[in-house]
Amino acid sequence: MIRVEDVNIRLGEFTLRDINLAIDENEFFVLMGPTGAGKTVLLEAIAGLIPLRSGTIRVRDKDVTKMPPEKRGVSIVYQDYALFPHLTVRENIEYGLHFHKVDRGEADKRLTRMVEILDLGHLLKRLPLNLSGGENQRVALARALMVNPRVLLLDEPLSALDPGFREEIRNRLKGLHQNSTVTFLMVTHDFADALSLAERATVMNNGVIEQTGSMSDIFQRPNSTFVADFVGMKNLFDVTFQGTTASIGGLQIELGQPPGNSHGYIAIRPEDIVISRERLASSMQNSFTGKVIGVIDHGFFYEIQIVLNGVTFRSLITKRSFFEMGILEGIDIAFAFKSTAIHYF
Amino acid sequence: MVKKELFFWITISCGIVILAFILLPLIEMLTAPSFSMLKETLNDKDVMRSIWLSIYTAGLAALISFVFGTPLAYLLARTNFTGKKLVESIIDLPIVIPHPVVGIAILSVAGKNHWIGQLFADLGIRIMGSVTGIVTVLTFVGLPFYINAVKNGFESISPRLENVSRSLGASMFSTFFRITFPLAWRSMFIGIIMCSARAISEFGAVVIVAYHPMIAPVMIYERFEGFGLKYSQPVAVWLVSICLTLFLILRILTLRNQKET
Question: Is the pTM of this model over 0.90?
Fold first, then answer.
């Protein structure tokens, strides 16, 4: 369990302000945010590597704010592995045991278990220099877990890996988490990693926390324009509400119910906007026709930008439907979305 | 084969001129003395004593730099503080000060007119004309070379290695001796070589603080003044060859160490 209470940090020009987080025992928690948001700084502060200006940090109900890093029981794994280059894989993994009272039998038991879970048997005698990225990261994980930490901090552990290794390490992380009592706190800016591993997350920007909540809260119900944009809600509009409708540029968008105490934004995920060459005869309340002004190739998906009354909507379709519909810039196109796909705040 | 451009030939020619400029005088000096003369010099007790004095005072200067300079180099590599640039400039000062000025500056502190000089005199430590004085001067001129080399070495080691070590339970001391030191060892060795090479070549500052006991450069100068070029060359040859051999042996020893780790 980790409690971060009213933490403020100043590092040169950079500041973290009023950070509050409560992470449960054995939870898998994710920190997201753009580069420079302060995610790594927060991680290193929890590890005791960066001093706080104010606030407290608790690990398992113990105030560790004033403790040096070696007393906290918090292991850290970096994106660039940070393996000790002058030690073999085995020496790396066993490094932490020098500083913990662990008898030989127990140490061997842990090593055997790590070697088995992370498939390290053939690597033990080698130097980190000669290992692949995935192998390096497995060694770094084993080294961090050998000392039975209370908390495992992961700083973008998957970002430097090739796609194949990435999925493998992701699955191993999942397995490690399920088979241990350790609390996992991971920094990432990859949504696939976050969604497949974590139960809850925090989005940070510019040194402050924007939103904390379950994964579905963050992806479906962002509470600020920043989070909405960050999680890929590309259709984000400043609107005026009236009854159960939101109006923007003369368009009336049906919400299905009154927006309550929302401030005047609606957001729609691009994959929730359906398009077609003919006007759609469907049950969707919000059905319009606009002009295609842009097509962006995202590999397997195409983003179609449609303008109507000066408002630009973005729809995400598969490559296959893109070619089947024969979409070109400048043509008229019908688009529609369900009122339940609209998120307002 | 593609015809090389004029530019290429200019770069090559300049390179050859520079190599010749460095090597020609050295080769000329090394080959000038006859074999019998070299042998005779080898049996000259004064010469051997001065070469030995040169080597061990330079070695001591490097050792002192190692002990006191390593922590400072670490501090400069790892921390940022106001006035850091100033500290770095102060450390570089001995490189830019003219050598005789270094000698005069040290004497003005170590002389009888200064309270530090008085204190040393009371303790029975003599700077003027003593081995202590020579080592003081050599440390003064050699320190910047050691500190800069080792600072670069520390900077090239990711602080994340130390972070990980500490998060695994190691104190700062354990982290330094288990992780940082073994990884920086090579740069420390280079620093020691740079520092002692600089120290062995010092003449101007030493000659002011201690003409006697005579280190090799002072003896070479004395022989040149008193007896001429012919008599100073053999001493120079021996100094250069012994130093090169020593550095070569050190180099081989550490290269072997590198392979083992």
Answer: no
